[in-house]
């Protein structure tokens, strides 16, 4: 057993941060785990599971400094993750908040900061397989989320390197699992509405990351050698899947019709561009029903090389993709409204 530590998890009322906080409270009862977030209801649920909770706005630099005083490890999982929104909101939530966390870690000499970044920074609308961490990035980010997350990652690592804090960044790809409200639930909603035509090639392959495996990767980064400070790691399940096979499996689990109608990808992309332009002009604060980014996620290959995480962190996804999908689909089927 290691010496007791004070571990702070930002974004603890979110999907990944909450899963991590609960895991740490259960697996390391000798450590003090403090979760930070804005959702008081979810915060109370965390407290019932043994996690200390504090409601906090990370854009308040003074408050961040106060709460990180005395921390040994900080996992920064908080972010505004959305394909649409006001750039100012993304800058505040992803750049400014991350800088406040990094500055507080340096000021209080936190031993380790694990920064959760995103492989969305690789996305350029084209197919890529086995993307490495050092792959050249697009000249222009796909959206404000990816753009601000890249700025945050670079600034956090630079500030921590200059300030003597051992920081590591993880880029987990498409985290899913029971309790997620983003990936499979959004696809399920599109299936229910009959708004999911088949796009692109049937063999389009993508990487996903089961939430328990993402938590394992974070724990490994928390405990990693100080010699790995400044390193960045791709994280996934290491088992690329055909996205349309997953969607068909989702439809079957929910007793919904599999998508049959096929539309030409260029036509749908052109339509999405027109819809986005209209929303930017007339309804900029509301997400359009059709986005180029969403279409590309379903029609271009996107897989990661996780060799660096395997070699340097000892990362081994312990929940295989088939079991991960079984668990997630079973939960979604339990929640499916009766028709």
From TrEMBL:
InterPro entries, A to Z: Epimerase_deHydtase (IPR001509), NAD(P)-bd_dom_sf (IPR036291), NAD(P)-dependent_oxidoreduct (IPR051783)
Domain named NAD-dependent epimerase/dehydratase: residues: 7-235
Record Pfam families: Epimerase (PF01370)
SUPFAM superfamilies per record: NAD(P)-binding Rossmann-fold domains
PANTHER family for this protein: NAD(P)-BINDING DOMAIN-CONTAINING PROTEIN-RELATED, PROTEIN YEEZ
Protein's name according to its UniProt entry: NAD-dependent epimerase/dehydratase family protein
Organism: Lysobacter firmicutimachus
Source lineage: Bacteria, Pseudomonadati, Pseudomonadota, Gammaproteobacteria, Lysobacterales
């Amino acid at each position: 057993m290691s010496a007791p530590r004070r571990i702070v998890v930002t974004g603890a009322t979110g999907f990944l941060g909450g899963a991590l906080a609960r895991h740490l409270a259960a697996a390391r009862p000798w450590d003090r785990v403090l979760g930070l977030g804005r959702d008081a209801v979810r915060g109370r649920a965390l407290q019932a599971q043994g996690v200390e909770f504090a409601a906090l706005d990370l854009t308040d630099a003074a408050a961040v400094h106060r709460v990180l005083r005395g921390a040994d490890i900080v996992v920064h999982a908080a972010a505004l993750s959305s394909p649409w929104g006001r750039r100012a909101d993304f800058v505040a939530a992803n750049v400014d908040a991350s800088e406040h966390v990094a500055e507080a870690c340096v000021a209080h000499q936190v031993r380790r900061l694990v920064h959760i970044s995103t492989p969305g920074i690789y996305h350029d609308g084209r197919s890529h397989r086995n993307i490495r961490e050092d792959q050249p990035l697009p000249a222009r980010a796909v959206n404000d989320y990816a753009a601000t997350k890249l700025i945050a990652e670079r600034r956090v690592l630079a500030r921590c390197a200059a300030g003597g804090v051992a920081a590591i960044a993880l880029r987990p790809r498409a985290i899913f699992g029971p309790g997620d409200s983003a990936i499979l639930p959004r696809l399920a909603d599109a299936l229910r509405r009959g708004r999911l035509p088949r796009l692109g090639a049937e063999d389009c392959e993508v990487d996903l990351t089961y939430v328990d495996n993402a938590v394992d990767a974070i724990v490994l980064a928390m405990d990693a050698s100080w010699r790995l400070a400044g390193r960045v790691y791709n994280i996934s399940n290491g088992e690329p899947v055909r996205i349309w096979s997953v969607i068909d499996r989702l439809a079957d689990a929910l007793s919904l019709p599999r998508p049959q109608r096929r539309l030409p990808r260029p036509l749908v992309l052109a339509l999405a561009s027109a819809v986005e332009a209209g929303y930017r002009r007339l309804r900029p604060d509301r997400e359009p029903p059709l986005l180029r980014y969403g279409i590309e996620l379903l029609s271009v290959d996107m897989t990661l090389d996780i060799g660096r995480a395997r070699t340097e962190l000892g990362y081994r996804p312990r929940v295989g993709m088939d079991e991960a999908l079984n668990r997630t689909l079973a939960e979604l089927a339990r929640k499916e409204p009766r028709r």
